Amino acid sequence: MKRSEINLRIREGIAFFDRMGFKLPPFAFFTREDWQKEAADAAEIFDLQLGWDVTAFGGPDFLRTGLLLFTLRNGRAGDGRYRKPYAEKIMMVRENQVTPCHFHWKKCEDIINRGGGNLVVELYHADPTRNRLVSGSFPISVNGLRRTMEPGEKLILTPGESVCLESIHAHRFYGEPGRGEVLVGEVSMVNDDENDNCFLDGVIRFDPVEEDEPPEWIPAADYRKFVTEADHA
């Protein structure tokens, strides 16, 4: 992705979260200069990659296949400095903007429609030990109620509804056409995007970035690119 598009998408995300009445933490608005001033006290933010995340999953069209999210809190398994066993994200999902099919080997998560349009979640039965989809129906919890789903079946979450996804639940999601953008929350076990994502379409999680303009805000994946190790040692 070009840095200019990342800047644009974060700018759009800030406006969207504001329209939805969702308040981001102060560091969501830090400039590069702000980060350099606060770096000595920001080890938790840097180490756990809290903050902005913009991805097109390696593709050419963010609006077709992409996601903007903000990681609000996180922990790290086995690290005594960061003992939280949970994580939380907030996302902006557009109509027909697809997050590709994937599952997690470790993370169990609740996906929550916090407001706006409807979220379509396509669900599949995964075998995490063999990194593939399998046939047959499978159980899932929707709004705390047990349901049985068939592979590829669409679950539509209206505002206030949620689904609990375990490692056997591969999922692909997008905003329902004609319903508008969706404010999507995620409450989960510790999040590790580098080691706990299995994308079944062969996409990549983090895009290479073309630096065509300076960053207005620094995504979590770029902290150490723009804020030196010396600044937060």
From TrEMBL:
<dbReference type="GO" id="GO:0047828">
    <property type="term" value="F:D-lyxose ketol-isomerase activity"/>
</dbReference>
<keyword id="KW-0413">Isomerase</keyword>
<dbReference type="InterPro" id="IPR047581">
    <property type="entry name" value="EcSI_cupin"/>
</dbReference>
<protein>
    <recommendedName>
        <fullName>D-lyxose ketol-isomerase</fullName>
        <ecNumber>5.3.1.15</ecNumber>
    </recommendedName>
</protein>
<keyword id="KW-0119">Carbohydrate metabolism</keyword>
<keyword id="KW-0479">Metal-binding</keyword>
<dbReference type="Pfam" id="PF07385">
    <property type="entry name" value="Lyx_isomer"/>
</dbReference>
<keyword id="KW-0464">Manganese</keyword>
<dbReference type="InterPro" id="IPR014710">
    <property type="entry name" value="RmlC-like_jellyroll"/>
</dbReference>
<dbReference type="InterPro" id="IPR010864">
    <property type="entry name" value="D-lyxose_isomer"/>
</dbReference>
<dbReference type="GO" id="GO:0046872">
    <property type="term" value="F:metal ion binding"/>
</dbReference>
<comment type="similarity">
    <text>Belongs to the D-lyxose ketol-isomerase family.</text>
</comment>
